[in-house]
Amino acid sequence: DVKVTQSSRYLVKRTGEKVFLECVQDMDHENMFWYRQDPGLGLRLIYFSYDVKMKEKGDIPEGYSVSREKKERFSLILESASTNQTSMYLCASRWDRATGELFFGEGSRLTVL
Amino acid sequence: QQQVKQSPQSLIVQKGGISIINCAYENTAFDYFPWYQQFPGKGPALLIAIRPDVSEKKEGRFTISFNKSAKQFSLHIMDSQPGDSATYFCAATFSGSARQLTFGSGTQLTVLP
Fold first, then answer.
1. Residues on chain A touching B49 (C-beta within 8 angstroms)
2. How far apart are CA A34 and CA A22, in angstroms?
3. Which end of chain A is more exposed for a tag (fewer CB within 10 A), N or C?
4. Average pLDDT of span A43-68
């Protein structure tokens, strides 16, 4: 089974802090994704990566950056957290073109005070 | 502007009843329509998907109905069970692209025992 692990399930940070959200997948997948989930807005793509050190902006990249130094690890970085970044963050890996399947982690709920 | 509009936002159904979730899309280039199911505390997981060359796809108690001319598709859950209680997301993409995968806003389904 594909396993996508988000190390921090719950985080509470203060405005202006730098925040790192880590995601690790164990199946040697090339594609990895970060989504943000908000009530009434569904899932919105922040960034994705199709290879080590390769990244592309999604629909809402403002205020975020990413890092992919190793194939199995994709990090989402909030350089200066703001209250409007309070949300659930979902990492996913392995886009299956034939089935439309993404494999998601269990999410990281971030609260910015 | 959401390209995939989903309704209702929440749905309460009695055990054994039929749950119906509707989605409408705007982009006629969309050619693949997956549905994801998300249980509390978990990431979304692919439930069922359809391409526009068929009007209906059934997997067990779950059926997708697709109306290409109306640009609408819907998920029907027959004989709904309390274990079906989850959030459901419709989605759409084209050309097998993960970058273009667009999610609806989600429907929180509660099936009462």
1. 99-100
2. 10
3. N
4. 94
